[in-house]
Design a protein that fits this description.
- By secondary structure, the protein is an all-alpha fold.
- The chain is built from 19 helices and four strands.
- It has helices at residues 9-33, 37-87, 95-98, 105-145, 156-159, 163-201, 205-212, 229-267, 271-275, 278-281, 299-338, 348-357, 362-407, 419-434, 436-454, 465-504, 510-519, 549-556, 581-589, and strands spanning 459-460, 463-464, 523-524, 530-531.
- The protein has a two-stranded antiparallel ribbon.
- β3 and β4 (530-531) form a beta hairpin.
- α17 crosses α19.
């Protein structure tokens, strides 16, 4: 019997006993019924056939179940493999492979199900991570591109949800966040620069940035600040445009202010009038990038300076004449100080007539006079050393004149008040007078060297200084000769007086001599000292005159200063009658002795 091949021994034994009991009972029934042996064999065959059909049906059902289990296990293995591939979990071991021989199909299926569920949970979590990163990437990308964020369903990520891919997306997200931060900072820098430039140019900042993008204005705080390429480009163009306008206005302000400075200089504008433009003019001392004061280059500022330039231009013509005459006076004063002749082409009468006639631009005349002033300053610098030597020489000449007048005073040695001061001055004057010849020679050599270097004559009030010095030397030599002759005449006079005394036995009256001296211009002052008045004329005739640059200057300018007549003419005692000897002796007695030389 086939039943013995299935089931456990106990079940098979029990089944076998039951079948045998039933078969015996069936055979007994067939016997009682009277079935033939053939019928019994036929019915046993049908019974076995029906049992086989039942077994075959069960086997087919088991086979189908086994196939289904194999298919389920294969499907789960494929799903596990796909999840592992998607998640990139390379370290997961399939329990099916390790327990395939040890476990039944249902056991294998049961061991795979938890792994599949776990992998599915990991996939869902991983997809959420990818979805979050993807949404952030798309949002930032949309902000950068300027087209906004567009959420899309993940597709590629379902096939590759590995940690490597997740790390790549995270790196991309970090890069985009960094780019967004940099762009946002760049936008803020641009906006701040636009704000500063609009303040300097006095333009509407809100309108300027709103034209680029509404989110850039402070009043649009509800909008996210746009950081797209178009916004950055618009801001860059706006900054460039504002900088160009700033440069244009600055140059315009410089041009207008330059004209203003020229007018101020021409018209000698006071500090009080300039004070109102101090804020504007202070901008010119800064570089373009340093000008950040609000309204510094506003149209009103430029217009204010332009209006002042226009106002001063109208006043310029009326005041330029005064300025020209003032500068001409300044030029003449400078020329007078260094004793040179000013250029007659810009003489006051001539320039006044030219300005009144309108034939010459006063600015040209003023520039010409200023150029002459600069030339005179250079000339004064080159003449400085020689002029200083001339001053020392003239001072020595003044001391010489004072000493000669002082020597004419017969009371100079009196013990009067202040006499010691005059004595000290006389000593100093003698020392200085002894240096005059050397001064003159040195001055001549310096002047000739100057003329050779400059290739022109050194003029002093229109007269060559060397000629003046040579004339002075000649006059001084003649003067010394006259003094010598005067001393010789004095000796002759003394001899005649001695001879007369021997004949008549009498002397000139001191009272007459004193009265004669009083009549020759001596005057006593309250301090006890006597200041002599120089004698302009001598009895016998004029003495040689020492002509200094002052004398030449006086003649050249049409007036005469005090002339230096430093000695008297010699007396011709041979032609004088004897009876007049007394009066002549009185006159001769007033002639001072030669001053002692130090």
């Amino acid at each position: 019997m086939m039943t013995a091949a299935f089931g456990s021994n106990s079940i098979s034994f029990h089944t076998s006993n039951t079948c045998n009991t039933l078969l015996k009972e069936l055979q007994q029934l067939w016997t009682e019924i009277g079935e033939t042996q053939a019928d019994k064999d036929r019915m046993l065959m049908e019974l076995e056939r029906e049992c086989l059909e039942i077994y075959r049906r069960k086997v087919d059902e088991a086979t189908n179940a086994k196939a289904c289990l194999h298919q389920s296990i294969a499907s789960m293995e494929a799903e596990v493999a796909m999840l592992i591939a998607a998640l990139g979990e390379i370290n997961i071991n399939l329990p099916v492979q390790s327990d395939k021989k040890a476990k039944s199909l249902k056991g294998q299926l049961a061991s795979v199900k938890p792994l599949v569920e776990d992998l599915k949970l990991k996939k869902e979590e991983r997809m959420k991570q990818f979805a979050d990163i993807k949404s952030q990437i798309e949002k930032i990308t949309g902000e950068i591109s300027g087209y906004g964020s567009s959420m899309s369903v993940l597709t590629l990520e379902e096939q590759d949800l590995s940690v490597r891919k997740l790390t790549e997306h995270q790196s991309k997200l970090r890069a985009l966040k960094k780019e967004k931060s940099e762009r946002l900072q760049k936008v803020m820098d641009y906006v701040n620069e636009v704000h500063t430039l609009c303040g300097v140019l006095y333009l509407d900042f809100g309108q300027t940035v709103s034209d680029i993008h509404p989110s850039l204005h402070e009043s649009s705080m509800g909008l996210v600040t746009n950081i797209s390429d178009s916004t950055l480009e618009g801001l860059d163009q706006a900054v460039l445009k504002l900088k160009t306008e700033k440069k244009f206005r600055l140059q315009k302000l410089k041009d207008v202010t330059g004209s203003l400075f020229e007018l101020w200089n021409l018209m000698d504008t006071s500090k009080e009038e300039k004070a109102s433009f101090l804020r504007i003019t202070s901008v010119l001392g800064l570089s373009e990038s340093e000008i950040v004061q609000p309204g510094a280059l506003s149209p009103e500022t430029v217009q204010q300076v332009s209006a002042e330039v226009e106002r001063l231009t109208k006043l310029k013509t009326s005041r330029l004449k005064e300025l020209v005459l003032k500068k001409r006076s300044e030029l003449e004063d400078m020329c007078c100080k260094i004793h040179i002749q000013p250029d007659q082409s810009t003489a006051a009468e001539k320039t006044s007539a030219l300005i009144d006639s309108g034939l010459v631009d006063p600015c040209e005349l003023l520039a010409n006079i200023e150029a002459q002033i600069c030339k005179v300053k250079d000339e004064a610098f080159s003449r400085k050393e020689i002029m200083e030597r001339i001053d020392r020489w003239l001072a020595a000449c003044d001391e010489e004149k004072w000493l000669e007048d002082y020597n004419l005073d017969h009371n100079r040695y009196s013990a009067g008040r202040g006499a010691h001061i005059n004595l000290k001055r006389a000593e100093r004057a003698r020392i200085m007078i002894n240096k005059i010849p050397a001064m003159v020679d040195n001055l001549i050599s310096k002047t000739l060297a100057w003329e050779e270097e400059k290739q022109k004559l050194f003029l002093y009030d229109g007269v060559r200084l060397v000629s003046i010095l040579e004339d002075y030397k000649q006059a001084r030599r003649l003067k010394e000769e006259e003094k010598k002759r005067a001393r010789d005449q004095k000796k002759l006079q003394d001899m005649l007086l001695t001879e007369k005394e021997s004949i008549y036995g009498s002397k000139p009256s001191p009272r007459r001599s004193s009265s004669f001296r009083n009549q020759n211009g001596y005057r006593a002052y309250g301090n006890g000292s006597v200041t002599p008045s120089p004698r302009r004329n001598s009895v016998g005739g004029a003495t040689p005159e020492l002509l200094t640059p002052r004398s030449y200057s006086g003649r050249h300018n049409g007036y005469f200063k005090e002339m230096r007549r430093l000695s008297t003419a010699p007396l011709n005692f041979v032609a004088i009658p004897k009876e007049d000897t007394m009066s002549f002796s009185s006159i001769g007695g007033s002639e001072p002795e030669s001053p002692p030389q130090v």
